[in-house]
C-alpha cells in the first residue's frame, strides 16, 4: 500500500463519505474474459475513445515492492495500450527521490506532452513537477499530493479517511446496535498521515453507533510485520468481535497469525482490496468477510485524464467542459454479495 502521503485535505463531512458518488473514469467500467488484473482497465465507449492527436506520456512511480504498488504500474501500462494514440514512456520504479527527480527531468528534456507521476515523496517532487508544468507539460499527480497546487493540472487520489469510515460503518451495521462489541484495529505505519487518516475515519464512524477501538496495534505494510502485530494483538485481546486490518498485503501475515492462534470468534475486515483477500471472501471459509477498496487503478485513471487534457477533451459523463482539478475515488466495502464486481480489477498481494 502507498506509504508516504503529505498533508491531506479533509474538506468533506463524515456523512459525505457514506453518500459521495464515485466518478467513473472508465478504468474500471469494462470487465473482460481473460481474468488478469489489466483486463478490468477498459474504455468508456464514447467519442473520447476515438483515436486522435498522438500523446506522449511519461510515467514514474515508486518501486513495486508490494502488490498494490506493482498493480499501479501494471494498470497504467495496460490502460495506455488501449489507445493507439498514446506513446507511454515508463521510468524504472524507484524509491530514491533523487533518481525520480532525474526521471522527471528527462521527461522534461524529451518534451513529452504529459507526465503521470506517483511520487515517492510528494513534497520532495513538488519543485520538479512545477518545473514540468512551467514548461507547458501537463502533470497528473497520483495518490501522494504535491505541496503546491501549481505543480499539477489534476490530482487523482484514493480516500484514506473514507476507508476508515467505510470499515467503521460496516462494523456498525454488523453490530446492530450492540454497544458491547469488542473492536480491534491493526493499522499501518503510525507516523504516516495516511494511517492517521484511516484510523480517524474508523474511530469517527464507530462513534456514530456507540462503539470504539478497544485494542489497537500498528504494523508496517509487510507480511512479516502483519503477522507479528497480529500475534501481539491476539495475545492482548482474549475476545474480539470485529478486527479491521488496514492493508491486505500485511493481511497475509495477519491471517497467518490468526490461524496459528486458532482464533475464529470474530469478523475480520481488510483494506486495499487484494485479489487473494477477495477470493477468501468469496470462498467464505475464513474470518475474513470484507475488505475496503483503495484503488490501484489511480495511475490508469491518470493516463486517461492526461490523454483527455492533451487532446483538449473533457470527461464525457460530466456537464463541466474541463477535466476536474481533483478526482477522489471512493472506498467501497467488498463483501461476498458484490465481490464478483470488484475481483477483476483487484491486485495480487
Automatic annotation (TrEMBL):
Alphabetically sorted, this entry's keywords are: Signal
Q: List, alphabetically, the GO terms of the cellular component aspect.
A: cell envelope
Please report the stretch or stretches of sequence annotated as the Periplasmic binding protein domain: 57-313
Q: Which GO terms describe its molecular function?
A: carbohydrate binding
- Highest taxon listed in the record's lineage: Bacteria
Is Nucleotide-binding there in the keyword field? no
User: Could you tell me where this protein is found in the cell?
Assistant: Cell envelope
Q: Report the family membership.
A: Belongs to the bacterial solute-binding protein 2 family.
Q: Name one Pfam family in it.
A: Peripla_BP_4
State the signal peptide span. 1-26
Is Signal one of the keywords UniProt gives this record?
yes
SUPFAM superfamilies noted in UniProt = Periplasmic binding protein-like I
Q: What is this protein called?
A: Substrate-binding domain-containing protein
Q: What is its main location?
A: other
Amino acid at each position: 500500500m502507498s506509504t508516504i502521503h503529505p498533508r491531506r485535505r479533509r474538506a468533506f463531512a463524515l456523512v459525505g463519505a457514506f453518500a459521495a458518488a464515485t466518478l467513473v473514469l472508465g478504468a474500471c467500467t469494462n470487465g473482460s474474459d481473460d481474468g488478469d488484473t489489466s483486463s478490468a482497465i477498459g474504455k468508456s465507449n464514447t467519442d473520447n475513445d476515438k483515436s486522435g492527436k498522438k500523446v506522449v506520456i511519461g510515467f514514474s512511480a515508486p518501486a513495486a515492492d508490494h502488490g498494490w504498488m506493482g498493480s499501479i504500474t501494471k494498470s497504467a501500462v495496460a490502460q495506455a495500450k488501449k489507445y493507439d494514440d498514446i506513446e507511454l514512456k515508463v521510468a524504472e520504479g524507484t524509491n530514491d527521490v533523487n533518481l525520480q527527480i532525474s526521471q522527471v527531468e528527462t521527461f522534461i528534456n524529451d518534451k513529452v506532452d504529459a507526465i503521470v507521476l506517483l511520487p515517492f515523496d510528494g513534497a520532495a517532487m513538488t519543485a520538479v513537477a512545477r518545473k514540468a508544468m512551467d514548461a507547458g507539460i501537463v502533470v497528473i499527480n497520483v495518490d501522494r499530493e504535491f505541496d503546491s497546487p501549481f505543480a499539477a493540472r489534476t490530482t487523482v487520489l484514493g480516500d484514506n479517511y473514507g476507508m476508515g469510515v467505510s470499515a467503521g460503518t460496516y462494523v456498525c451495521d454488523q453490530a446492530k446496535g450492540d454497544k458491547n462489541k469488542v473492536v480491534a484495529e491493526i493499522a499501518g505505519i503510525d507516523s504516516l498521515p495516511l494511517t492517521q487518516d484511516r484510523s480517524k475515519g474508523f474511530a469517527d464512524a464507530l462513534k456514530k453507533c456507540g462503539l470504539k477501538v478497544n485494542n489497537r496495534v500498528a504494523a508496517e505494510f509487510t507480511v512479516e510485520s502483519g503477522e507479528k502485530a497480529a500475534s501481539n494483538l491476539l495475545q492482548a485481546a482474549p475476545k474480539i468481535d470485529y478486527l479491521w486490518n488496514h492493508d491486505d498485503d500485511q493481511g497475509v501475515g495477519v491471517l497467518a497469525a490468526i490461524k496459528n492462534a486458532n482464533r475464529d470468534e470474530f469478523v475480520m475486515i481488510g483494506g486495499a482490496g487484494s485479489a487473494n483477500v477477495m477470493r477468501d471472501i468469496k470462498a467464505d471459509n475464513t474470518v475474513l468477510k470484507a475488505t475496503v477498496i483503495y484503488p490501484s487503478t489511480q495511475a490508469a485513471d491518470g493516463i486517461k485524464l492526461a490523454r483527455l487534457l492533451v487532446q483538449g477533451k473533457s470527461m464525457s459523463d460530466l456537464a463541466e467542459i474541463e477535466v476536474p482539478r481533483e478526482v477522489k475515488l471512493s472506498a467501497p466495502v467488498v463483501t461476498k454479495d458484490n465481490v464478483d464486481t470488484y475481483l477483476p480489477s483487484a491486485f495480487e498481494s
